[in-house]
Amino acid sequence: MSIEYLGLSEINGPMVVIEGVRGAFYDEIVEFDVAGKQKKLGRIVEIDEDKAVIQVFENTAEMSLLNTRTRLTGRPMEIGLSEEILGRTFNGLGEPIDGLGAVRAEERRDVNGQPMNPCTREYPRNYIRTGISAIDGLTTLIRGQKLPIFSGNGLPHDELAAQIVEQASLGDAPGEDGEEFAVVFAAMGVKYDVAEYFRRTFEECGASAHVAMFLNLSNDPVVERLITPKVALTAAEYLAFEKNMHILVILTDMTSYAEAMREVSSLKGEIPSRKGYPGYLYSELASLYERAGIVKGASGSVTQIPILTMPNDDITHPIPDLTGYITEGQIVLERALHQKTIYPPINVLPSLSRLMKDGIGAKYTREDHQDVANQLFSSYARVGEARDLASVIGEDELSPVDKKYLAFGLAFEQEFVGQGRNENRTIEETLDIGWRLLHILPREELDRIDTKILEKYWETGEG
């Protein structure tokens, strides 16, 4: 039997306090009746003896200390799930906003999830093809991996996210073994025009049928932003481990999530840590990122691409810094490449995929993949040295080899990193472009490629 409480003890922004509470628990969902006219939801975030602090998911402007009735539901935040969520659009709490009615739920799940038992994890192996050479060739995304994109304000991370959703597949022959692939897309704190851009893009390219979208707009309640990624990941886990699908989860923008956490923490009066963020920022991010993976005995997988904008392009900022500790690599977008009109502006040198080596090669992509990637990395690093030298002594004074590296660097940025916004490259096309660009350099400079691989593929890359 639920108990109803009359009145509130305190209202502070999206936080309210009630006293005399019995039998409440952390993360319990609370229902509010405001003056008999409005219904609101909240969740308990703190309990101190008989006092409960509740986050309200909506605006508290109409609520007063006297006109509100509070009822504890006795259950955590849950979402109704079935395969019908694919092709649908929801708000940040998992409620449909596409006008197609409610989802017929096969089951309801707690959005807070359960930690994945490390002993039940399988090591990620197979790769996911994005059709983007800088990712597929040099920072390959592996099924079950968490690989964030570090961006900055004004950089085209939204366009990149949309292109990945459009093009992502299970290798170059998706569905060949009867494996199903889908995308769960969650946007937090985005403007209406950005949300509309995602919706329209997915519909026009025909990808919307295998995408479940969860949208928290910038004018939606801040507290809702903290729930959105949990709702999306709960949906992903259901599709992956109950329906045996391979799910790619894209979370944008994790900076909005962290800033919402900072705002709520400040309202709760908690002692701030670095840059004003709460001390538990690391554990909160880890609780989201660690929900990616593959479970023994399950045919599906959850792969994550969190996207975050680095304040002032500072990669040492707490959000990218902590994200880098938790995840298995990063893809870094660079403003200098964007200013050269190169899309996507991925700087491959600070970018890496720590699981790449175990998901590429003869069994997965092509036998020359690792060697080509190593050589392209090494050669592009040498380009930076040649450019620095040219800025000091002038390009005309460079050695013939250094001039070759300058030519290689320009071609690499324009033809390998740069590609059309609708260009979907196979892994073979990506590697063939890499070989063609390596022909700009003298053959004796290619010291990162095995001799047998070099003999086999050198001629095919000419022209």
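^ that was protein a. below is b, sequence first then the tokens
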Amino acid sequence: MSRTPKDPELARRLSRRNVLGVAAGATAATLLGGATAQATGPQAAPGKGKGRPVLPPGRLGIQLYSLRDKVSTLGFAPVFAELEKYGYDEIEFAGYTQGSAGAITLAQLKRLARDHGLNPIGSHVGYYDDNNPGAYTFAQNLTKVLDEAEALGLKHIGTASGPFRYGSTVDGWKRAADDFNTYGAAARKRGMKFYQHNHAEEFSFATDKPGVRLYDVLLAETDPDLVYLEMDIYWAFCAQFRFGKRVDGTPAPFNPIDYVLKQPERYPLFHVKDGTRDDSARDGYNMTDVGDGDIDYKNFLSRVTTRTRHGRTYHHWQTEHDNPVESFAFARKSSEHLHSLREGRCGD
């Protein structure tokens, strides 16, 4: 079950709010001896929040890249303590070190997560690095990548690298798909699922066949029992803006959620990242804290989580912001907003 946030004030707010995030306050910074940080967002009118929650119980996580500044200075322990208070259930790693906070073993990291009620659900590792043969990537160090994921008890191990190792042609992406199938087969032998996390460019068109969307090549050429997808919803919506037309200008519209609804079991993980629409911006959106933007997460979560296998919900939702103004405030606001979303009418 999804845990009630241990911060009493946060719990009170979660029971009353029904729309966008609130001013974050300085609780985390004060507790940890840091400077007071204020994050602002639109105030929502109090509401009773009637209706079924759209966020599945026990499935709210956070990509720790969003908190890399805190991890690298304070360490994992204070960060996990804050996430526990904010009501998070899961974490997704972006590395296993904690900078100036000192060394930590994988066994200690796994135990620390467990002690704070956080389930390590996945991790991002690079796909390849041709300029560094000894790099810690799937291509150069597959056994080590899987050994460490297994030591942490991860159910998923993946990459946020695009499949551009062999270029942007159809054949190049077929070769990358072969690599992914290999990693997926190796992960499956360890009881894990291999996954790829998208950015906007995955939805661009092949340079040799400009009528073919590269993401469609990836889906077609990877084995659905071996290769899974983590949709970054924000970047998928940016791609909808950037790549809604082919190179020759002919329309090629798509809706990110349609990919998920066609093959819901291929998308065990999602990145919940928000943005405000801006036609003048390169990507069509400006990234913001979850709940402060224009992406309709109430609708997205509602439609996806109704697609269950044998009546069970199996999707996991990881909040993320690439460069938050104040990372603890972002984590707090994101949890608060997503817990507040209810189907049906709110405030009746």
